Structure formats: C-alpha cells, structure tokens
Amino acid sequence: MNERRVVIVDFIYDYPGRESGSTEELMGRKNAIWQSRVRELERTYNQEPGEAASFDGVFYPSVEEHFKLEHISGPDSRFLLSSERITLSLLQTLADRNVLGPKNNLLVSIGTAQTDSLSKFALMRVEGEAFGHAVKLIDPLGYLKLLQLGRPPAVELISEASTSGISSMYSAYAKIRKGEFDIALTGGSSAVTFPVPYELSQFGIGAERYTEPFEDGASGRYFSEGGAAFLLKERELALSDGDTILAEIKDISAGTMGNPVVNRTVIKKLVSRSLENAGVDPEADVFLELYGRGNEIDDTAEFSCLKTLQKSYRNLKGGFLKEGVHYIVGYYGLIGTCRLLDSQRMKTELQGREVASPNAFIGRIGAEQWSISPGDYRLYSAVSYSMHGNCYNLLLQLEAESVYRGGAGE
C-alpha cells in the first residue's frame, strides 16, 4: 500500500503586498493599518482590545476586505479569526476549481498558529443572540464546517509553530500513501486577530530587517501575515480526473535539531535520508532551497550543511526563492515552493536570488555551490525549521511537461 504516489495538482498562496510588491509601503503605514484592524475587531466582538500598539510587521489593511467569504452568512463570518478567514478562503478556492470526487476519501489537514486558541477565548466574550453564533466556532476545528465541499471530510489540526504548514502536508502525504485517503486539502495561514503590544516570537533583532538572508548584515525578517494551501491526490486518481500534475512528492522526512538553532549535522542527515528514501542517484541534479532565517548563525550553518551535502551529491546546488517574503509563521518555508510551482504552472522562468555580499562567516558563495536558475532542475528539495527544533525536508519531482488530461485543475 505504501507504493501509492502522491502528487500536487493545485495550490494557492497569499501575503500582504504579494501582487504590488509594496512591503515597504505597508510597513510605512503599519500604525494606521493596525488602528484600522483594531476597529474591525471592536465592531466584530463589541469589546475594546485596549491600548495595543502595533509591532513591526507586514499586515493586510483589512482581512475582511481582502478575503471575502460570500458563501458564509454574516453571523458566522463575524466570529472567524483572521487566520481562519484566510484559511477558509484559500481552501474554498481550491475546492471550487477542482474535481474532488464524491466517492473518494477526503482529508482536510490544517496547520495552525498556537496563538489562535488563546485568541478565541480572549475575543469570544459575547452575550445574547450573538453567543449562539460564536459558540459554534469555539471548537478549533469548528470553522472548517463552513467549507462547501459537497460532503463532510475528515479534518485534523496540527500546530508546530514555524513548521505547522509542512507538518500538515506531511500528515496528508503519509495518509494518501497508505491508502487511508485519496485526496487532501492541506495548508493554512498565519494572521493577527488579537492585538498584542509585542511580538509573540522574535523574528528579527535589527531595526532594519529588509536585508536578505545570507547577506552581510542580515538581522532576521519582519513578521508577515499570509498563508498557503495545496491540493494533493493519489497520482492515478489525478490522471483519471484530468488534473494538471505540477509535481510529485517523492518524500517528506521529519526530524529534530534538539534546539531552535540550525544544527548542520542533523539537517545533512535529514536531507540525505530524504534523497535516499526517494532513490535519488548521487549524480542527480538537485536544487536545494535553504530556509533562510536571515541571521548570521543559522544562515552560516545552512550554507555549511550545503557544502557537506555536496560531498555525497556533487550535482546538488543551493538556492533561495523567498526573496522579499517576510516571516509567515508556519508557512514561510513553503513560499519558495509555491513560487516554483507558479513558474511551473505558468511556464515562466523563476529567477533565484544571487547573494551579492555573503556574511563574513560564510565567506564566499560561488557557482559551484549556488544556482539562481531553479528552472534548470526537475528535483527540488526544501528544508524547514521551527522554534521548537522540529525540521522537515520536502522533496519534489517537477513534471518535465505538466501532465494534463484536460477538464479540471486550471
């Protein structure tokens, strides 16, 4: 049963400023945006969040306006957390434009922020008629009942800080491989619903966090809202449904570094295990996208790990596809994958980032270690880490020409 193959047939992702590239403009208006978001909360929950000042981050000016949910009634929509609204919008979009098949077992696997449960209890102090609508959504999985899928799916929620997204995909991938499910909607989002006057997690240490990872002077990234969702299917089912197959998941491996700091030895073993599980030839061309936390310690460890891996896989090269994307908790590690799949679907060339001035500990980054042309590769590997030390490696094989039988998935 473990021989079943799992493919990605569709995906969707979003973050503030994605279309306009206006991160700096949003940061310049962050205090005004924050006050607008606070007023939205006051209208929704009939309570004042108090004196909560904005922290440095990239926020949607209005989650309600950006992610409209016309199919959900006003009373139900009113009590959705910001992250839940984004997640529902992403998942519903995938469901609406694809064939899910009423006779196939469907799983909805969600990766969520650990702060969402706290937000629910803090915000849902409502009384009277509104209580009846609010209480339905107190259950952390309750909002998923608002998805319109044509039949009830199995649902699960996974919370692993910065690796929640890849962890939910890992679970879905394993269950489809084993034959427990045929289709999975997996993903989620990170957003600020309950205003707090400080960063719950430190995403950077510098006042200026635009410097890209691996560059000299990198001091972390700004917190950013956003999310990503994927539609996974068993390969033969995808072909019979007429889906566009963008990539096959060859392996997802999980491990632990033992602490939040990147452990180069653990990551080397994790990526090697992933390549071995998939039967990748040591001479194969592999593009390894590094995570890029954007600080000297972790970035140096990642680059050291890359050079060690090249001793066993001499045609493996590193790269970074998340340029300009700030820290989306739980989904940062998957944004490079989304950009790669975007180029695969649109048949456009994705330019990787060249590291102009590597930090002093890395020293030099040459063409023998680094590639800015991910489109030259069919095997794509991406590592992700969490603040708890969890780590994952996602290994994809991109379709040389996206397999398409017509009808669905466009």
TrEMBL record:
The lineage of its organism: Bacteria, Bacillati, Bacillota, Bacilli, Bacillales. It comes from Paenibacillus tianjinensis. SUPFAM superfamilies: Thiolase-like (SSF53901). It comes from the Bacteria. Residues 3-398 form the Ketosynthase family 3 (KS3) domain. Transmembrane segments: none annotated. This is Ketosynthase family 3 (KS3) domain-containing protein. InterPro entries: Ketoacyl_synth_N (IPR014030), PKS_Beta-ketoAc_synthase_dom (IPR020841), Thiolase-like (IPR016039).
